[in-house]
Amino acid sequence: MFSFFILDRVELKPCNKTETANIEIINNYWSLPMFKFLTTWVFCLFLSIPVAWSAQEVPFLTYHNAPPFIVDADKQEGLTYDLARLLSDRSNGKYQFVVSLLPRKRLNIFIEKLNTCVVPWVNPAWFQDKKMNKYSWTDGFMKDSNSVISHAAKPVEYSDPESLVGMNVIGLQGGQLVNLTELIKTKKIKKVEVRSYFQALKMIAAKRGDAAIIPTSAAKHLIFQHRMKNTFHFSSTRHTQYERRFLVRGDPGILIFLQKQISFLKTSPAWQAKFAKYGLIQ
Fold first, then answer.
1. Could you tell me the pTM of the whole model?
2. Beta bridge pairs of residue 97
3. Which domains occur in the chain, in start order?
4. Gap between the Cα atoms of 248 and 271, Å rounded
5. What confidence tens digit (pLDDT) does each residue in 211-268 have?
6. How far apart are CA 2 and CA 14, in angstroms?
7. Mapping DSSP to helix (H, G, I), strand (E, B) and coil, where does residue 279 land?
8. Dist. CA 68–CA 82, nearest whole Å
9. What whole-number distance in Å separates Cα of residue 199 and Cα of residue 106?
10. Helix, coil or strand: residue 254
């Protein structure tokens, strides 16, 4: 041990003669070419490490406020948060996807106002863009559908809109039931409006409606979460089927990045495990 040293620039000086040899070794080390090489290498390595504050923040807008997409907004739980974190990680520090939950009408306004944004889980038909020339779109990364769900003790098999004539059909308040609008207007089908998909399932469980039309992903998650597996019947024919995609506004680099992730999202066991966690794969 050294009792005391005086630091003169980079040279250490001992206070007694017995320490002279050791100090000479240390002073000589500072002048070694290898030491200079190592310090330069460490400095360059530090500069090459991506830092969080250098990432481009990308608004990740969604109006899907129901499980499994949004389970708990305060705790940032749900598939949308999982997807945003996954994409941020896979960009290696280039992008930070920031989830923002908005009503559909406000989301439409934001899409037009923001220079750059991404909307996950959507389909061109829902944005009057079937030809995909209004916005930029990735390929589909999740197949989904709207299911016709009835009580297991009184199953309903859907074949076409006419097969629901004379029934009380449960749907979300303010939402449109595709292909059923005219039959509802002419009162051949009675639409019963509810505020949530879970409320729709509870009404079917209580036999207060003949059928409910619910996104299959939402229905599977709710049935899994509330342990209602044997309560319902899913019609073998879906009401509608579609693929969920990314809508991209602005920066073409983000579109290229997201398109490259489609294959991973379709095949990754780790990502598929997320679906199992929410009851989408059983």
1. 0.77
2. 58
3. 54-143+242-277 (3.40.190.10), 144-240 (3.40.190.10)
4. 21
5. 999 999 999 999 999 999 899 999 999 999 999 999 999 999 999 999 999 999 999 9
6. 8
7. coil
8. 11
9. 25
10. helix
